[in-house]
Amino acid sequence: QVHLVESGGGLVQPGGSLKLSCAASGSFFSVSAMSWYRQDSGKQREMVATITSGGTTNYADSVKGRFTISRDNAKNTVYLQMDSLKPEDTSVYYCHGQYLDYDLLSFSSWGQGTQVTVSS
């Protein structure tokens, strides 16, 4: 079981920046991928950015060139650097982790979410 805790959300003006962090604690054999999702009220959760165990990254078209996902394996932490923020980036951001346990079975975990509000 892995517990994910996000931090770094808040209120920022359009054009500003925020950096989200997601710290993982618990027991697992390996990490397959870490992702950031976001979800607006009444809408489906959408993938924002993913980083695989090999370091390959993937981004939603709406955030390409503005957001950067990275990780610190030693700290079991994944980050989302968000630059040039727009009002439409306002959402609750969730961290997601895909793991292998010690029986090499895949499982996933979600964080509790952190609110990002982009407004003047």
Note down, in words, how this protein is organized.
The protein has strands at 2-7, 10-12, 18-26, 30-39, 46-52, 57-59, 67-72, 77-82, 91-100, 106-110, 114-118. It has 120 residues and is mainly beta. Strands 2, 4, 5, 6, 9, 10 and 11 form a seven-stranded mixed beta sheet that branches. It has a four-stranded antiparallel beta sheet with strand order 1-3-8-7, with no helix packed on it. A hairpin with a 6-residue loop joins strand 4 and strand 5 (46-52). It is elongated and about 50 Å long.
Keywords:
single chain, 120 residues, mainly beta, 7-stranded mixed β-sheet, 11 strands, 0% helix, elongated
How would the blueprint of this fold be written?
Blueprint: E1 2-7, E2 10-12, E3 18-26, E4 30-39, E5 46-52, E6 57-59, E7 67-72, E8 77-82, E9 91-100, E10 106-110, E11 114-118
Parallel strand pairs: 2-11
Antiparallel strand pairs: 1-3, 3-8, 4-5, 4-9, 5-6, 7-8, 9-10, 9-11
Most strands sheet: 7 strands, mixed
Mean pLDDT: 96
Q: Which residues sit in consecutive blocks of at least 5 with pLDDT less than 50?
A: none
The tally of strands reads: 11
Number of H/I helices: 0
SSE succession = EEEEEEEEEEE
In helices, the fraction of residues equals under 10%
* Rg over C-alpha atoms, rounded to the nearest angstrom: 14 Å
Share of residues in strands: over 45%
Structural class: mainly beta
Shape: elongated
Q: Give the termini separation.
A: 40 Å
Task: Give a short synopsis of this structure.
The protein is an all-beta fold.
